Amino acid sequence: MESKFIPEAIKIVKSAVQADNENKLKEALALYKKALKYFIVGLKYEKGRSRELVREKIDDYMKRAEEIKAALADSKSNKKTVVHAGSGSTKVKKKKKTGGGEGG
Hints:
Blueprint: H1 5-21, H2 25-43, H3 48-79, E1 81-86, E2 89-94
Antiparallel strand pairs: 1-2
Helix pairs in contact: 1-2, 2-3
């Protein structure tokens, strides 16, 4: 029996990559997640080398989705700023990152 899940996953992931390339990260993340669901279901219908290739693609797209999720979370936390007013001027102080010990 031929699965319709993998072709549908490929169609969705193409849209995800396009959104990713256009820097529409929220949309890309949602599409990657949807495609991954289809790939995972379709995986059980695949055999041999084809199954290995699908598994590799799942890993690749999962990693990219995690990177996007982290980038979105990071940009969200960077938007949280503290505004201090005094002496007629305002200073915007970004939330400090912890750890690292990197100078600069």
